[in-house]
Design brief:
Elements: H1 2-28, E1 33-48, E2 53-67, H2 85-110, E3 116-125, E4 142-146, E5 149-150, H3 154-163, E6 169-175, E7 178-185, E8 190-193, E9 199-202, E10 205-211, H4 215-242, H5 253-265, H6 270-291, H7 300-317, H8 323-353
Antiparallel strand pairs: 1-2, 3-10, 4-5, 4-6, 6-7, 8-9
């Protein structure tokens, strides 16, 4: 129960950070904010400021920063729709930017005491590994890319191999200071015997530990981890659109809270649980930042798309798309998102009972 509470608080914090990004940048740009709310649904608490109402609502599944003239025409010169395009752009991307920076900050704190990490340089092979030799892989090779996709951290290697749908794979490695392209390697999971004499299914490569030499290397590792989280979102979307995954594999707030609870309970001790939960929180923060910038109606990315589209149309015709039509599109997008959220929530509940 403690881990569930921690997960709910952390999830709510990330939502608050996102909305605070919109709120703070809107204020800096002189845009009027009518309400800043954490949570959705019925109002629990509120305080009226000079011009903004600060609210806490019942359902911890979202939040909002209600700006004047955001979804309707307004004669107020400080309305969102009347602000310069660059100001609206900054406000729209601010929420995702704050989420990304929050995730990056969490990772930098986690890795601040890191002494070593798993490198991408091959230190050995499992007995019977079939891809050894000068024309294939050799001990001391550093893996740079899998099928043209960069390997930033050691975990990328396994992840990218798992996404490969072919029987062979193309690798880019660094050997003796030179970059080599190794094509059509039959690198797939196989049964190997480990040091305990047990059979395990793995790719058959061993990687060693590299000692951290200073703060810049810790910062670099934290930054690479955050970039990796972004790429994992894109890879997941590719799998979803390419048929490698389905909407049944999606998870919402209920599933996320449950997963975070399991992560905490399966940790070796309380300190590891806190670290693991914050690591998962960093992933969720960066996940939110990417998903909100997708060019889908009702999302921040959808509004950015219309902002850019209006800019192009205005340059060509000196006209813009009437605001009411954009509102219709965002309203339809919101209905679709709510339907998807309801579907995913039912799936999460069903998994809990299973």
């Amino acid at each position: 129960m403690l881990y569930i509470l921690f997960a709910i608080v952390l999830f709510g914090f990330l939502i608050a950070i996102h909305e605070f990004g919109h709120f703070s940048v809107a204020k800096l740009c002189g845009i009027r904010v009518n309400e800043f709310s954490i949570g959705m649904g019925p109002l629990l608490l509120h305080k009226q400021g000079k011009e903004t109402q600060y609210s806490l609502r019942l359902l911890p599944i979202g939040g909002f920063c209600a700006m004047e003239g955001e979804d309707e025409d307004s004669s107020d010169p400080r309305a969102f729709g009347n602000a310069d395009a660059w100001k609206r752009f900054l406000v729209l991307i601010a929420g995702s930017t704050f989420n990304f920076l929050t995730g990056l900050a969490i990772l930098l704190v986690i890795y601040s005491g890191m002494q070593c990490y798993v490198d991408t340089t091959i230190t050995g092979f499992a007995e019977g590994f079939p891809c050894q030799g000068e024309e294939m892989l050799m001990k001391g090779d550093t893996i740079l890319a899998v099928n043209g996709r960069a390997v930033l951290l050691s975990g990328d290697f396994t992840t990218l191999l798992s996404l490969n749908r072919e029987d062979t794979v193309d690798l880019t490695v660094r050997r003796n200071g030179q970059k080599l392209k190794l094509n059509d390697l039959p690198l797939v999971p196989r049964p190997y015997t480990d040091e305990n004499g047990e059979t395990v299914v793995r790719y058959g490569l061993d990687f060693g530990l590299k000692e951290v030499t200073g703060i810049p290397e810790r910062i670099r590792y934290g930054f690479y981890s955050s970039v990796d989280f972004v790429r994992m979102v894109w890879w997941s979307l590719e799998e979803l659109l390419g048929g490698g995954a389905s909407v049944k594999d999606l998870s919402g707030p209920i599933g996320i809270v449950n997963t975070m609870s399991e992560v905490g309970e399966q940790s070796a001790n309380a300190w590891d649980a806190v670290i693991n939960l914050f690591y998962f929180g960093a992933f969720i923060a960066i996940n939110l930042s990417v998903m909100n910038l997708l060019p889908f109606p009702a999302l921040d990315g959808g509004r950015v798309f219309f902002l850019m589209l209006n800019g192009i149309i205005y340059l060509l015709t000196r006209r813009t798309i009437p605001a009411k039509y954009e509102q219709y599109v965002h309203a339809a997008g919101m209905l679709l998102l709510l339907a998807l959220m309801a579907f995913v929530a039912l799936q999460d509940v069903f998994r809990l009972f299973q």
